[in-house]
Write a structure and sequence with these properties.
InterPro entries: HAD-like_sf, HAD_sf, PGP-like_dom2. The protein is mainly alpha-helical. β3, α8 and β4 form a beta-alpha-beta unit. It has ten helices and five strands; from the N terminus they run βααααβαααβαβαβα. Strands 3-4-5 form a three-stranded parallel beta sheet, with helices on both faces. The chain has a two-stranded antiparallel ribbon with strand order 1-2. It has helices spanning 7-20, 35-45, 54-66, 69-75, 82-90, 105-113, 138-151, 167-176, 190-195, 208-220; strands at residues 2-3, 77-78, 161-164, 179-183, 200-202. It is globular, with a radius of gyration of 17 Å. Helices cover 48% and strands 7% of the residues. The protein has two domains: 2-75; 78-220, Rossmann fold.
Length: 221
């Protein structure tokens, strides 16, 4: 949904310093993983062990992003077509939309809110985040359960579509019980996303009509 201009990796490095008192020497490895796993991997590569509980790690991540919000606004951007895609999907009968991400919920909100994407039609009550589970695929079931509880409609693979731009996003959808529309707006090529199991791969979200057609096709498949 956004390009963060490198601020995401800086956020993990900043959180590592808050937790350990050491500057990060290695770049965090992200690629659609969950925040807790990213932080543990970063610590391991530095020969450190994060003895803090998840809530303390999440707190460090939240503080680290907040002090970088102005930098995010300056260097990042909303990807072309995202707002139009959200608004168009909101007009589709029966569609509800939320966020499924490996980021903790506060940081997911800040990232989207910085670019005026956090409001309706996104329903944050039914999303799933890295603060819910460290296993990315498990987030699909969490979002489905929350959606079913709020809207009194069962959600399963036949009526759940995950949209993502990394192979980890795609695998999470496939393994978690969703259909997947991949968008090649990140660092991974379209063929890589297809090989990961995406039902449909789009080059970007700039063509709203093509995006809606893709959603309808995967729902009907």
């Amino acid at each position: 949904m956004i390009a963060n201009g490198g601020v995401s990796k800086e956020t993990y490095a900043g959180a590592f310093e808050l937790l350990t008192g050491r500057r990060a020497e290695f770049r965090p490895r992200t690629g659609g993983s969950t925040d807790l796993l990213i932080m543990r991997d970063l610590a391991e590569r530095h020969g450190a062990v994060l003895t803090e509980g998840p809530e303390n790690i999440f707190g460090a991540l939240e503080r680290s992003l907040l002090v970088r919000r102005a930098t995010l606004a300056a260097r990042g951007r909303a990807l072309p077509g995202v707002r139009a895609a959200l608004d168009a999907l909101a007009q589709m009968d029966g569609a509800v939309q939320s966020v499924l991400t490996g980021n903790i919920r506060p940081n997911a909100f800040v990232k989207l809110d910085t670019f005026d994407l956090a409001g309706p039609p996104l329903d944050w009550d039914i999303g799933a985040f890295g603060s819910d589970d460290e296993v990315r695929a498990n987030l699909v079931g969490i979002a489905q359960r929350r959606s079913a509880e709020k809207y009194a409609v069962p959600f399963a693979r036949d009526n759940t579509v995950l949209i993502g731009d990394t192979p980890n996003d795609v695998r999470a959808g496939v393994e978690g019980g969703a259909k997947v529309v991949a968008v090649a707006t990140g660092s991974d090529r379209a063929e890589v996303l297809a090989e990961a199991g995406a039902d449909i791969v789009l080059p970007d979200l700039e063509d709203t009509a093509s995006f809606l057609t893709a959603i309808k096709q995967v729902r009907a498949s």
